[in-house]
Amino acid sequence: xxxxxxxxxxxxxxxxxxxxxxxxxxxxxxxxxxxxxxxxxxxxxxxxxxxxxxxxxxxxxxxxxxxxxxxxxxxxxxxxxxxxxxxxxxxxxxxxxxxxxxxxxxxxxxxxxxxxxxxxxxxxxxxxxxxxxxxxxxxxxxxxxxxxxxxxxxxxxxxxxxxxxxxxxxxxxxxxxxxxxxxxxxxxxxxxxxxxxxxxxxxxxxxxxxxxxxxxxxxxxxxxxxxxxxxxxxxxxxxxxxxxxxxxxxxxxxxxxxxxxxxxxxxxxxxxxxxxxxxxxxxxxxxxxxxxxxxxxxxxxxxxxxxxxxxxxxxxxxxxxxxxxxxxxxxxxxxxxxxxx
Length: 341
Fold this sequence. Notes:
- Helix content is 33%, strand content 15%.
- The protein has 341 residues and is α/β, with parallel strands linked by helices.
- The protein has 2 domains: 2-184 and 260-334, Rossmann fold, CATH 3.40.50.1820; 186-258, no CATH class.
C-alpha cells in the first residue's frame, strides 16, 4: 500500500489491506465484494423527506443509537452510481458506526432508492448541493455535533467536492470527510472503464441507467424524452443525457466541473481517502498527480478492486476490511470505543 499522509488519528488497529488468497485481482475483489452475501444487518431507521430546489425532494434514512444526545457525533453516508441508501456497503458501514455511538443519516441521492418519484431531477457526480442540504438538515437536528461526510464511489467524489467547497462556504458542524474509491477524474474514469477488460462494467452501467431513465420518463410523462438509442458507453450516456439534463455543455464540461481532484488541495478538514490500484472503474494515476493537503490522508492499496476489499483477516465477524477501516478512523477521530463486530 502506498500511503501519502500527514499526522492523523492513532488508528493502527486496522493494518493495511491484504486480500484473501482466494480473492485476488481487481475483478475478483469487485465481484465478490458486490455479490457475496453476508449476514443480514438490521437496525431501526426513520424515513424523512426534505425539500430541496426546483420542487424536488430527497429521502433520508436516519438512525440514532441508544443514548445518543446532541453534541455526540453524526455522519452522512452517500451511495454510489446505481445504488441507494439500502446498498449493502452503506448498510454495513452504518451498522458499524451505530455501534460506535454515531448517529447515521443514509441519503438517497436525487431520485434514487426510496426517493424515486420525489424528484424530476437526477443526481450526478457534481451535485454537492444535495449533500449540503442533508448535512445542514442533520446539523439542525444535532446542534453542536461534529459531522462526517462518508462517500462511496460517485458518492465519495461528492463528499470530497463538498469538503473542498466548504472552505469558502462552510457547512455547519462539518468535521471530517471519508472517501472510498472516489472517481476524482471523471474523464479518466470514462476512458478507463472502456478498456477491453472493463467493458462489461461499462455495459452493465449503461443498461441500468437506461432502465432508470425509462422509469423516470414513465413516471413524469411531461419530461422531454431524450433518445438514448445511440448510447453504448457511460461516456455516451453523459454526453447525451447527464450533461444536457443538468445544464452542462457536454460530457467534457460535466467532467471538468464535477471532478473533485482539482479541488482536493483546498480541503481544510481532516479526512481519509481509500483507493485500490486495481479498481476496474477508476484508474490510480490521478491520485498520484494531486498534492493532498496535510490533513487529508490517502491510502492507495495495491489491491481491493472497486469497494471490494475482501480480506485475508476477519474484522469482527467478516472480511470486509473497508468497513472496519472507515469505522476505526472515525472511532480514533472522535475518541469512541471501537468494539469488535
